[in-house]
Amino acid sequence: MGYSTPLWYAQRVEGRRPDLVIIDDRTRLDEGLGDITDVIDAHLGRKTAAAAGSTPRVARLSYFFPAHNEEANLAGLVEEALGALPRLAETFEIIAVDDGSRDATASIAEALAEQHPDVVRLVRHPVNLGYGAALRSGFGAARYELIAFTDGDRQFKVADIGRLTERLAAPDAPDVVVGVRIKRADPLIRTLYARAYRLANRIFFGLRVSDVDCACKLFRRDVLDGLRVDSGGAFFSAELLIKLQAAGRRVAEVGVPHYPRTAGSATGAKPKVILRAVRDFWLLRLRMWANSRAALRRGRPILGG
Question: Which among 31, 159, 198, 243 has the fewest CB atoms less than 10 Å away?
Answer without folding.
Answer: 31
